[in-house]
Design a protein that fits this description.
The complex is a heterodimer.
Chain A lengths: L1 H28 L5 H6 L8 H13 L4 H33 L5 H13 L6 H10 L7 H7 L3 H13 L3 H9 L4 H12 L1 H17 L2 H6 L8 H10 L10 H6 L3 H21 L1 H13 L2
Chain B lengths: L1 H5 L8 H26 L11 H8 L3 H32 L3 H11 L6 H11 L8 H6 L6 H4 L5 H26 L3 H9 L4 H12 L1 H15 L4 H9 L10 H10 L4 H26 L7
Classes of the chains: A mainly alpha, B mainly alpha.
Membrane topology (chain A): Multi-pass membrane protein
Family (chain A): Belongs to the binding-protein-dependent transport system permease family.
Main location (chain A): membrane
Chain lengths: ~290, ~290
């Protein structure tokens, strides 16, 4: 009986393992096959490297190598916005944790509330606001909203209020550091782990965001990769038969679409896996702190 | 003590550290909400409209069906999350071992895919001609062609599965972490009293992670109501068989973009914001997991 239960447990866990990883394994192998081979050969077989090169050639040629432009745009938006997030969030978390200025509780509460709200809920309101300011279609209409990242402030706040000994800061002040000097020479270097966390989360959430850039950008040359993928989807005949002959011309078929998806997620996936532990600490930090 | 008080970040002195953040908080957190509320309660010309934009947008022939879609999707997704995330976390916690960590890691990987990428992966999975799960596509979804897989009646289930696939692993890890905070002595005592692994899981562990389950449910409910990317991409892949106003957020988007009816779009946005805000307030005030004061 006990053996049977143990067997059932392993079976359930393994089945879910297949469910979670199977689609990704398929995605990694798909570009090694031609569109025809994708249908005729087993889903988890390896084709040849030659097909990957061919798929990349087609993808690169698509619309004047716009694929690389999209990747470049995603990098530009995510890196710039994340830089602003670091400059705004770390000092704010520091001051919210260790300072006491009028309105501190209000700022903390607002930060927590916005952090707990689904990001998508703010997209159309932000669009309406930017539209009134005539900023629609500008690169800034993506970067500036991305620069608001309450989760990062909360991470810094939790870190500074739990992990940093106040005596250390007092010592620095006694030694004649001003407030800014104390932050820059003592508090900031000690916060390296949290700076890395904020950097990572902000970058990933910007890289993966679809709704905001889709809403505020008009020109396909400005698209980040997530929105670009939707354009590629519309150009793939097996998903959009309307392209039909057009598909032949642009050379985008299922292997190309799979390769495009893979290239778009691999950088994030690698960093993501490396930081699993910190992610969880960040997610539960507010709850389990003593 | 007085000397120490006069030093440090007290009073207005520390304020400079928060100012840059306050600017983005106000510009992209608070002002958009206020502006959307203002638009929702005014007319095209800027006059007071009362609740007319709300009744007008709610009276749109697509409003109720979009709301229905979103609610069905959210219910299916929440059921999947509650049943399977809790089951998997309890199974993994039952016998802590190296394989338990490996499973948690595997379940978590799809979390890296969000936005359009996860939807594209699942469009492949739903294409019976290339899918490794074509057996399930044939027999569970009853589809032999890609267009049959994304028939309108199946969409809530499909979107729920995509959302589950990307997010469940993260929640398993969170629940597992919550289970780890249960004191060992409690488990030992129950074991001495003759509790088997099943009793232990259901009678001792489950009640102790209730708060976290509530947190997951509320947060996911609020997120689920905002659905946009999935139906938008399926609309593109289905030749318009799936309407571009399938979800409430899509309807708001179309009202703004196709009809330039910003006031009605703002009204729907405010409906959705209210749901998100309610969820956030309930989590913060009721679960006790997030405290403002340390």
């Amino acid at each position: 009986m006990a053996l049977l239960l143990r067997g059932a447990r392993v079976a359930v866990l393994a089945a879910f393992g297949v469910f979670f990883v199977g689609p990704l394994l398929w995605l990694v192998l798909a570009p090694t096959k031609s569109d025809h081979e994708l249908v005729s050969r087993g889903p988890f077989t390896f084709g040849s490297i030659h097909h990957v090169a061919l798929a990349w050639k087609h993808l690169y040629a698509f619309s004047d190598h716009i694929y690389l432009t999209w990747i470049g745009n995603s990098l530009l938006y995510a890196v710039t916005a994340t830089a602003i997030v670091l400059v705004t969030a770390i000092p704010a978390g520091y001051c919210l944790a260790l300072g006491s200025f009028p309105g501190r509780r209000l700022v903390l509460t607002l930060t927590l509330v916005v952090m707990m709200m689904p990001a998508a809920a703010l997209v159309l309101p932000i669009f309406l606001e930017l539209n009134a300011l005539h900023l629609i279609g500008s690169v800034l209409s993506v970067i500036l909203p991305f620069a608001f990242f309450p989760f990062g402030v909360n991470l810094a706040y939790i870190y500074y209020s739990t992990a940093l000994p106040r005596e250390l800061l007092d010592a620095a002040r006694v030694d004649g550091c001003g407030e800014w000097g104390t932050f820059r020479r003592v508090a900031l270097p000690l916060a390296k782990p949290v700076v890395a966390l904020v950097l990572f989360f902000s970058f990933v959430s910007d890289w993966n965001n679809f709704f905001l850039p889709y809403t505020v950008l008009g020109d396909s040359k400005q698209y980040p990769i997530q929105v670009g993928l939707s354009t590629l989807l519309s150009s793939t005949p097996s998903f959009n038969p309307a392209v039909g002959g057009g598909g032949q011309q642009v050379g985008i078929f299922r292997p190309e679409l799979a390769l495009a998806t893979l290239v778009a997620v691999v950088p994030v996936a690698i960093v993501f896996m490396l930081s699993q532990r910190s992610l969880v600490r960040g997610l539960v930090g507010g709850g389990v702190k003593e | 003590m007085r000397v120490a008080r006069s030093r440090g970040l007290h009073g207005w002195r520390g304020f400079a550290f928060v100012v840059p953040y306050l600017i983005v908080l106000v510009a992209f957190g608070i002002l958009p909400v206020l502006y959307a509320v203002k638009l929702a309660f005014t007319t095209d010309g800027g006059g007071w409209a009362g609740f007319r934009n709300f009744t007008h947008s709610a009276g749109d022939y697509r409003f109720m069906s979009a709301l229905g879609h979103v609610l069905v999707f959210t219910s299916v997704w929440l059921s999947l999350l509650i049943v399977f995330v809790v089951t998997l976390a309890l199974l993994l916690h039952g016998r802590a071992s190296r394989s338990s960590a490996a499973y948690r890691f595997l379940y978590y990987i799809p979390g890296a895919l969000a936005g359009a990428a996860s939807v594209l992966v699942w469009l492949f999975m739903l294409d019976p001609s290339v899918s490794p799960g074509s057996f399930f596509v044939h027999h569970v979804l009853g589809a032999h062609l890609f267009v049959e897989s994304i028939a309108p009646g199946k969409l809530p289930l499909i979107f729920a599965m995509i959302a589950f696939w990307t997010g469940a692993g993260g929640w398993v890890v969170v629940m597992y972490g919550a289970l780890n905070t249960i004191p060992q002595e409690l488990e030992d005592a129950a074991r001495i009293d003759g509790a088997g692994p099943l009793t232990l899981a259901l009678r001792i562990k489950l009640p102790l992670i209730r708060k976290w389950i509530a947190y997951m449910v509320i947060l996911s409910f609020a997120t689920g109501t905002q659905l946009f990317v999935e139906p938008q991409l399926v609309n593109q892949a289905s030749l318009g068989m799936v309407p571009d106003t399938w979800s409430s957020n899509q309807l708001a988007y179309q009202l703004a973009f196709r009809y330039a009816d910003f006031n009605s779009a703002a009204a729907i946005s405010v409906d959705l914001l209210a749901i998100g805000l309610l969820g956030a307030v309930v989590i913060i005030s009721r679960t006790g997991l997030f405290k403002v004061e340390s």
